[in-house]
C-alpha cells in the first residue's frame, strides 16, 4: 500500500493537534428583509491534543460542540482561527492537498444508524474509505475490512449483513472499524456514546482504551456527560455558550474547579452519585 | 391484500399485456392495414359452438361473411357453411421487433370468412388487430416519454438539490414555469410548431420528445426533495470525510435514494402520457393514418352516425380503463411500499 | 401589500416568459399558413410572397415578436389568417364561452368535493370512506376522453340533450327564461363531463389535506376537551386546512383549463379549445399564441386570486410580512 505520510512525529511533547482561536459564524437573512444576523456557533477555541492522549470536551447540547467537531474533521470550514496537525497548517491546503490529510483525522457520529448507508453491507461500509483513497485491490480491501471487524469485536462472518441487522452497540463498532481503516492518528467522538445504554457504553469505552494503547491513538471525546468522559480522559475542556471556560487535566478539574459552570456540572454529577450512595447505604 | 401482493399482480398483468402487445403480429389475426371493402363497419363476429342443427362442435366456428354486418339476418342457406377456428394459422407476414419475419398467427379462420373480434371499421379493417398493433405505438410513446421526463427530472432535480444556490433557484423557477401552464395547451402549442405533413416516424419521435420535455418539472421537484435530505445524511458526510468527490457521493450514496421515487413517477407518468398521445391523435395532431394508434381508432367516433350505430367502435376506449386501473394499482402499491421503507 | 406587488410582478414576468416561449416554439416550424397556398400551382409565387410580407411573415423573429407586443398594447393581438379578422375579438367571444363553462364547473366541482372530502376524512377507515374511495378511484381511472365520448354517446342515443353548440337556432327569439333554459340545456353535458373529470383528484386532495390537519395535536386536544365532532371539523380543522386547500384551488384551475379544451372539442362547445385546434391545423400563428396566452392569463389570475385569499385567511402569512 502506497502512502504519503507527513513527518511521523513520535515526539510525545509535540502536540498532534493544535487548535488556536477557532470560531464559526452562521449568517442568516431574515425572511422578507435585508437584515443579516450572525450566530456564533463557537468562538476563540484553543487547545492541544498530544499523541496517545484523550481530551474530553464537555458542555451542554447546542453549545456548538458538533460544529466544532466537524470543523476539526475538515467537514466544514471555520470562520476564524487555525488548525495544525503535526505542525501542518490544514486550513492553508487546497482540496487536492487535503486529500491525503483526511486519513489522519476521523469522526465518529452520535447516531450510528444515520452514519451507515443502510443499503450497503458491513464489509462495503468498512472498506469504503480504502476505496475512496484508492488503497489496494478489492480482495485486499476486503481482507483489511475483515481484519478490522475482528479488531473491534465483530464476527467477521457477518460481513455481508446490512447495518439494520446489527444492534446499536454493534453499529457503533462498525463505525469505529470504518474510522480505523485508514490508520488515523486522531479520532473525534462526537457524543458517540450518548445513544447507547450503560452496558454498551462501558464495552465501547473498553474497546477504545484498547485501541488507544495498541495504536497510540489520540481522542477528542465530545460529550455532555462529564461523569462518563472523566473515566477515560487525560484532560478536560469545559465549553459554555460557545467558549472554553476552563481546561485542565481531569484530576485537577475534579479537585479544584474554577468556573461556576464547571462547578455546576460537577455538582450535578456528584449529586447523582451521592443519591445512589445514600440509597445503597 | 398487502401492498406487495398488489404490486406483484399488477406488474404481472402489465408484463403479460406488454408481451401480447409486443408480439402483436402473432396474436392478431390480421395486419393492421389490411382492408376488406366488402365488410365495412362489421359487428364483432359471433363465435359459435353449437350449429343450427343443435350439434355441439368442440372447435368453435364462425359463419360465412354475411355473419358480419349491423343487421345480422343470416339466410338459412348460409348456416350450412361454417368455418372452424384454427390455431397457429399461416397468415399475413409480420415482423417481430422489426427483425424476424413470421407468418404464424395464434388463431384465424379461412377466407372468405372474417374473424372480427372487435368488429371492423369503415374500411373493413379488423379493430382487434389494430388495437394490438396500436398498443405498440401508444404504449411505447407513453413509456419513452415518461423515461425522458424522469431523466430530465433527475438531472435538474439532482443538480438543484445537491448544489443549491442560484442554480437551484434558476431550475426551480424554470420548473414553476412549466408547472404553471395548462399542459395540454402547451402540448398543443408545441405540436403546432411541428410540420403537419412529415413522416410518421418523425411525428412519433417529435411527439415523444415534446411530451417528455414538458413534464419534467414535477419529477424534478420530488427528486430535488430527496436529494436535499439525502445529502445531509451522516453517511454522506462520513464519505466526504474520507475525501470522496462530489461525483462519487452522488453516484454511490445520494442518487440510489431516489430510485423509489423514480419508479413511482414513471409508473404514474406512463398512463398520463399514453392518454396524451391518444388525445392528440384523436384530434388529428398525433401519429396519423395508417398507423393504428389507439387515438386513431377512436377518431371515427367524432361522427355522430358512427357513435350511435356502431357501438363496437367504442371498445378500444373501454379497454383503456382496465389498463389504467392496473397502472394506478401498481403506482399506489409502490408509493405505499416506499413510505414504509426506513431511510 | 408589498408581498402582493411582488406576486403581481412575478406573474407578469411569468406571462412574458410564456409569450416568448410559445412565440419562439412556433417560429421553429418550417412552413407557415401560406405554405399550402404555395403548393397550389394556380397561385403564383409572387402572390404568396406578397401575402407573406403583407402579414409580416418574412421578418425575423425579434421584429415579429416586437410587433406582436405592440399588438397586445393596441388590443388586437395580431391577425388571424384563417378568419381575416383581428385575433382579439375572436378570442374574446370564445374566452367568454370557456369562462362560462370552466367557472360553472369549478364552482360545482368544489361545492361537491368539499363536503365529500371533509366527510370522508372524518370517517376515515370506516366502510363509508372506503366505498367512497373506491368510487373515486374508479372514476379517476376512466380517461377524460372516454368520459366525454360516453356523454356524447348519451346525447346522441337518447336525444335528451343537444349534441353540441351553445345555443339553438332561434335563440334570440326566446324569452329570458327560455334563453336561460336553452343555455342550460347546452351547458349541461359539458359541465357534467368537466366536473366528473376533475372531481376525483380534487376529492382525494381535500381528503388528505383534512386528514393531515385532523391528525394534528391541537385537534386531539380539542376532542379531549369534549368539543363535539362537527364543531371540531368546521371551526377548528377546516380553517387550518384552508391554507393547503386554497393552494389546491389554484392548481385546480390549471387542471380545469386543460380538461376544458378536450370537452369543448368533443362536445362541440364553442370555446377556446376548438379554436386552438383549428388554428394549429391551419398554422394560424397569432391565434395559437393568443389562445395559449389567454389560458396562461386565466391561470395566473386564478393563482393570484388564490394568493390573495391565502393572505386574507392565513394569519401566519400576515405576521411574516410584518416582520
Which tags fit this structure?
heterotrimer; A: 281 residues; four-stranded antiparallel β-sheet; 10 strands; 24% strand; globular; disordered N terminus; B: mainly alpha; two-stranded antiparallel ribbon; 13 helices; 5 strands
Share of β-strand residues of chain A:
15-25%
Report the uncertain regions of chain C.
Answer: none
Helix fraction bin of chain A: 25-40%
Largest protein interface, residues of each chain: B-C, 39 and 53 residues
Structural category of chain A is alpha/beta
Q: How many helices of chain A in DSSP terms?
A: 10
Q: Tally of extended strands of chain C?
A: 0
- How would you characterize the largest beta sheet of chain C? none
- From the N-terminal CA to the C-terminal CA of chain A, the straight-line distance is 59 Å
Alpha-carbon distance between the two ends of chain C: 13 Å
Mean pLDDT of chain C: 81
Strands of the widest sheet of chain A, in order across it, are 6-7-8-3-9-10
Order of helices and strands of chain C: HHHHHHHHHHHHH
Q: Which spans of chain A have pLDDT < 50 for at least 5 consecutive residues?
A: 1-7
Oligomer: heterotrimer
Number of E-state strands of chain A: 10
Q: Mean pLDDT across all residues of chain A, rounded? A: 84
Binned, the helix content of chain C reads over 70%
Instruction: Output the structural class of chain C.
Output: mainly alpha
User: Strand content of the residues of chain C, in percent?
Assistant: under 5%
Overall shape of chain C: it is globular
Detail the topology: elements first, then pairings.
The complex is a heterotrimer of chains A (281), B (343) and C (323).
Chain A: E1 17-29, E2 36-49, E3 54-58, H1 65-72, E4 80-85, E5 88-89, H2 95-101, E6 105-108, H3 112-115, H4 122-133, H5 138-151, H6 168-180, E7 186-190, H7 198-215, E8 218-223, H8 226-230, E9 235-240, E10 243-249, H9 250-255, H10 260-280
Parallel strand pairs in A: 3-8, 3-9, 6-7, 7-8
Antiparallel strand pairs in A: 1-2, 1-4, 4-5, 9-10
Helix pairs in contact in A: 4-5, 4-6, 5-6
Chain B: H1 3-22, H2 24-27, E1 48-50, E2 56-63, E3 82-84, E4 86-96, E5 100-108, H3 127-163, H4 165-180, H5 183-193, H6 200-214, H7 217-231, H8 234-241, H9 246-254, H10 259-282, H11 294-299, H12 304-309, H13 315-340
Antiparallel strand pairs in B: 1-2, 2-3, 4-5
Helix pairs in contact in B: 1-13, 3-4, 3-6, 3-7, 3-10, 4-7, 5-6, 7-9, 8-9, 10-13
Chain C: H1 2-27, H2 35-39, H3 45-54, H4 61-74, H5 87-122, H6 127-141, H7 144-158, H8 176-214, H9 217-224, H10 229-266, H11 272-282, H12 285-313, H13 315-322
Helix pairs in contact in C: 1-12, 5-8, 5-10, 5-12, 6-8, 7-8, 7-10, 8-10, 10-11, 10-12, 11-12
Amino acid at each position: 500500500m502506497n502512502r504519503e505520510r507527513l513527518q511521523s512525529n513520535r515526539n510525545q511533547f509535540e502536540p498532534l493537534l493544535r487548535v488556536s482561536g477557532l470560531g464559526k459564524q452562521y449568517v442568516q437573512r431574515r425572511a422578507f428583509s435585508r437584515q443579516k444576523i450572525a450566530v456564533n456557533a463557537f468562538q476563540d477555541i484553543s487547545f492541544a491534543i498530544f499523541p496517545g492522549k484523550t481530551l474530553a470536551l464537555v458542555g451542554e447540547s447546542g453549545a456548538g460542540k458538533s460544529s466544532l467537531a466537524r470543523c476539526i474533521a475538515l467537514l466544514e470550514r471555520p470562520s476564524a482561527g487555525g488548525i495544525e496537525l503535526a505542525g501542518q497548517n490544514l486550513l492553508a491546503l487546497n482540496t487536492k492537498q487535503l486529500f491525503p490529510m483526511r486519513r489522519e483525522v476521523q469522526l465518529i457520529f452520535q447516531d450510528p444508524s444515520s452514519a451507515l448507508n443502510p443499503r450497503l453491507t458491513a464489509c462495503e461500509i468498512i472498506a469504503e474509505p480504502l476505496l475512496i483513497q484508492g488503497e489496494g485491490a478489492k480482495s485486499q480491501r476486503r481482507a483489511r475490512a475483515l481484519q478490522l471487524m475482528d479488531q473491534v469485536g465483530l464476527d467477521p462472518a457477518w460481513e455481508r449483513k446490512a447495518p439494520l441487522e446489527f444492534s446499536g452497540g454493534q453499529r457503533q463498532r462498525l463505525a469505529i472499524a470504518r474510522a480505523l481503516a485508514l490508520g488515523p492518528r486522531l479520532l473525534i467522538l462526537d457524543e458517540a456514546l450518548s445513544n447507547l445504554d450503560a452496558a454498551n457504553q462501558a464495552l465501547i469505552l473498553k474497546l477504545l482504551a484498547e485501541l488507544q494503547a495498541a495504536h497510540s491513538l489520540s481522542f477528542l471525546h465530545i460529550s455532555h456527560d462529564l461523569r462518563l468522559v472523566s473515566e477515560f480522559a487525560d484532560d478536560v475542556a469545559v465549553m459554555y455558550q460557545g467558549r472554553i471556560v476552563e481546561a485542565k487535566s481531569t484530576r485537577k478539574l475534579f479537585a479544584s474547579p474554577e468556573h461556576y459552570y464547571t462547578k455546576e456540572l460537577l455538582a450535578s454529577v456528584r449529586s447523582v452519585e451521592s443519591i445512589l450512595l445514600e440509597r445503597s447505604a | 391484500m398487502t401492498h406487495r401482493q398488489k404490486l406483484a399482480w399488477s406488474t404481472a398483468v402489465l408484463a403479460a399485456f406488454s408481451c401480447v402487445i409486443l408480439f402483436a403480429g402473432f396474436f392478431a389475426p390480421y395486419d393492421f392495414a389490411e382492408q376488406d371493402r366488402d365488410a365495412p363497419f362489421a359487428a364483432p363476429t359471433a363465435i359459435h359452438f353449437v350449429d343450427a342443427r343443435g350439434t355441439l362442435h368442440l372447435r368453435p366456428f364462425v359463419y360465412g361473411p354475411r355473419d358480419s354486418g349491423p343487421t345480422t339476418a343470416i339466410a338459412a342457406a348460409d348456416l350450412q357453411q361454417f368455418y372452424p377456428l384454427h390455431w397457429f394459422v399461416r397468415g399475413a407476414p409480420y415482423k417481430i421487433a422489426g427483425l424476424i419475419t413470421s407468418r404464424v398467427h395464434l388463431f384465424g379462420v379461412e377466407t372468405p370468412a372474417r374473424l372480427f373480434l372487435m368488429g371492423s371499421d369503415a374500411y373493413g379493417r379488423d379493430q382487434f388487430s389494430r388495437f394490438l398493433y396500436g398498443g405498440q405505438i401508444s404504449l411505447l410513446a407513453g413509456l419513452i416519454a415518461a423515461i425522458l421526463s424522469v431523466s430530465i427530472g433527475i438531472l435538474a432535480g439532482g443538480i438543484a438539490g445537491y448544489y443549491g444556490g442560484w442554480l437551484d433557484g434558476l431550475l426551480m423557477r424554470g420548473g414553476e414555469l412549466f408547472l404553471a401552464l395548462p399542459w395540454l395547451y402547451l402540448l398543443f402549442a408545441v405540436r403546432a410548431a411541428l410540420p403537419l405533413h412529415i413522416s410518421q416516424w418523425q411525428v412519433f419521435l417529435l411527439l415523444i420528445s415534446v411530451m417528455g420535455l414538458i413534464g419534467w418539472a414535477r419529477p424534478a421537484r420530488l427528486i430535488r426533495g430527496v436529494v436535499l435530505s439525502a445529502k445531509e445524511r451522516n453517511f454522506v458526510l462520513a464519505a466526504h470525510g474520507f475525501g470522496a468527490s462530489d461525483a462519487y457521493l452522488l453516484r454511490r450514496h445520494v442518487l440510489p435514494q431516489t430510485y423509489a421515487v423514480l419508479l413511482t413517477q414513471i409508473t404514474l407518468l406512463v398512463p398520463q402520457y399514453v392518454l396524451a398521445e391518444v388525445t392528440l391523435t384523436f384530434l388529428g395532431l398525433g401519429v396519423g393514418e395508417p398507423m393504428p394508434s389507439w387515438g386513431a381508432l377512436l377518431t371515427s367516433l367524432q361522427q355522430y352516425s358512427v357513435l350511435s350505430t356502431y357501438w363496437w367502435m367504442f371498445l378500444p376506449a373501454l379497454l383503456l380503463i382496465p389498463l389504467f386501473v392496473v397502472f394506478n394499482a401498481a403506482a399506489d402499491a409502490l408509493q405505499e411500499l416506499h413510505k414504509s421503507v426506513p431511510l | 401589500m408589498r408581498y402582493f406587488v411582488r406576486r403581481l410582478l412575478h406573474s407578469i414576468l411569468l406571462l412574458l416568459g410564456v409569450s416568448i416561449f410559445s412565440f419562439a416554439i412556433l417560429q421553429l416550424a418550417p412552413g407557415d399558413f401560406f405554405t399550402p397556398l404555395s403548393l397550389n400551382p394556380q397561385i403564383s409565387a409572387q402572390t404568396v410572397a406578397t401575402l407573406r410580407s403583407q402579414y409580416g411573415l418574412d421578418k425575423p423573429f425579434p421584429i415579429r415578436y416586437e410587433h406582436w407586443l405592440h399588438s397586445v398594447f393596441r388590443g388586437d393581438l395580431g391577425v388571424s389568417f384563417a378568419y381575416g379578422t383581428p385575433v382579439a375579438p375572436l378570442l374574446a367571444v370564445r374566452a367568454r364561452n370557456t369562462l362560462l363553462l370552466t367557472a360553472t364547473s369549478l364552482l360545482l366541482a368544489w361545492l361537491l368535493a368539499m363536503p365529500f372530502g371533509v366527510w370522508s376524512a372524518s370517517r376515515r377507515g370506516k366502510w363509508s370512506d372506503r366505498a367512497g374511495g373506491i368510487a373515486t378511484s374508479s372514476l379517476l381511472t376512466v380517461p377524460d376522453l372516454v368520459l366525454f365520448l360516453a356523454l356524447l354517446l348519451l346525447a346522441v342515443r337518447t336525444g335528451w340533450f343537444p349534441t353540441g353548440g351553445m345555443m339553438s337556432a332561434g335563440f334570440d327569439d326566446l324569452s329570458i327564461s327560455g334563453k336561460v333554459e336553452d343555455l342550460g340545456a347546452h351547458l349541461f353535458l359539458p359541465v357534467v363531463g368537466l366536473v366528473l373529470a376533475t372531481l376525483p383528484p380534487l376529492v382525494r386532495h381535500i381528503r388528505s389535506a383534512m386528514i393531515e390537519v385532523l391528525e394534528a395535536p391541537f385537534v386531539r386536544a380539542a376532542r379531549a376537551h369534549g368539543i363535539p365532532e362537527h364543531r371540531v371539523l368546521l371551526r377548528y380543522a377546516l380553517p387550518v386546512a384552508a391554507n393547503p386547500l386554497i393552494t389546491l384551488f389554484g392548481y385546480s384551475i390549471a387542471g380545469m383549463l386543460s380538461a376544458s379544451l378536450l370537452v369543448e372539442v368533443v362536445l362541440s362547445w364553442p370555446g377556446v379549445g376548438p379554436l386552438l385546434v383549428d388554428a394549429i391545423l391551419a398554422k394560424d400563428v397569432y391565434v395559437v399564441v393568443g389562445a395559449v396566452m389567454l389560458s396562461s392569463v386565466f391561470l395566473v389570475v386564478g393563482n393570484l386570486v388564490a394568493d390573495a385569499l391565502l393572505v386574507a385567511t392565513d394569519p401566519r402569512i400576515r405576521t411574516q410580512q410584518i416582520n
